[in-house]
Amino acid sequence: MTELQTFSARGLGSLRRFFSKKNSGDISRKQLPFEYGMRAYMVAPGQPVWTDRNYAQFSHEAYVKNVIAHRAINLVSVSASSVRLKLFTVGVRGGRKEIKQHPLLDLLRQPSPTHALGDFFQGLYHYRLIGGNAYIQAVGPKDTPPRELHLLRPDRIAIIAGKGTLPAGYRYSVGAQSVDFPVDRITGRSRILHLKTFHPLNDWYGLSPVEAAAYSIDQHNQSGAWNQSLLQNGARPSGALVVTSEHGGGGVLSDQQYARMKNQIDEQFTGAANAGRPLLLEGGLDWKEMSLTPKDMDFIEAKNASARDIALAFGVPPQLLGIPGDNTYSNLQEARLSLWEQTVVPLVMCTVDAINSWLAPQMGGGVELVADTDGISALAMRNQAIWDRVEKANFLTENEKRAAVGYPPRAGAVV
């Protein structure tokens, strides 16, 4: 279904009349907005805008069926959820101070009765990597700090269009039942936090990495299906049984002979149990190869190329996924460093910033969450190099050095 088909018949007719030559003067078709833009800005305010991408299909084809995408998503999600979060005061003289006990920390340690801290953030990152969108619901009485945090499946959320680019609310639907979560027009806040990946053509929903890697995922899945079919057919390429003209009535089998031969091949010469069984030909039959071999198709390398493209879409070095023939990184340690620096840490920072902006004011304000990157073992060598460089900077005072590496100033030290 195209973008315009998602409008109601009445609304679509209105849009057509709006953009018709009679009503638009000299406006040409080339001057009309893209379909994504039309959907983003021309949908009637107060109406839900459903995402066109099939989240269930993304989950099935990429996360469930494809081992490369599954491993890449798991690797990024588990790594990101393992980053420790610390809470600091903000706006206090003398620098920020770490807080060990706070309702916000208690909420994150046990967001809901069914999720602990690690499980919650793993699910959050999984949703975002698979669908490009993730939603957190704050549960509790209105105008009070949240008592629980719940993850909502992205395919059950529809954004209710508002004026401009600010949504009017979020609609969560399960079956025939739905509930709306309004967005405050002044502050832009809601009991729903929407985390999304940037999409250049959609104002409401994020772009899934699965969508960018769709062709490569399909190719990789088809390669696996081809291997399975080859195995089930005795691991032999297809070919043709040819009846020579000297036998079988001028090269033609009777219906009875044809049915007998077909049943014999299906029962005795196909499937894994019959692999390698020799084919007994009689009556002038001859076997002729017809299809290309895996070597001729360069099958293995094509499959590995698709796997590299999938890993690239998720920001995971192919070496960490066990893809052979990849020599981009000199060793595994550099590949891990690349994963954390280019993919995991930016994802965590973006998520922490969004949670700070959304959740901290609801918990009384004056605090902010900070990702503890110093505790990441993969970044130990990089952090050590930074510390050594700062330590050798004789023109910096002690507190300036501490500020350069992210530590608060020490009382009594030279400013």
Characterize the structure shown.
- The protein has 415 residues and is of the alpha+beta class.
- It has a domain at 4-32.
- Helix content is 41%, strand content 14%.
- The strands form four sheets. It has a four-stranded antiparallel β-sheet with strand order 1-6-7-8, with no helix packed on it.
- A hairpin with a 2-residue loop joins β7 (169-174) and β8.
- It is elongated.
- 22% of the residues are buried.
- Residues 1-42 have low confidence and may be disordered.
Structural class: alpha+beta
- What would you report as the Rg, rounded to the nearest angstrom? 30 Å
Helix content: 40-55%
Mean pLDDT: 77
The main β sheet shows up as: 4 strands, antiparallel
H/E series:
HHHEHHEEHHEEEEEEHHEHHEHHEHH
How many β strands by DSSP?
12
What gross morphology would you assign? elongated
Helix run count: 15
Distance between the termini: 64 Å
Major beta sheet, strand line-up = 1-6-7-8
Spans of at least 5 consecutive residues with low confidence: 1-42
**Binned strand content:** 5-15%
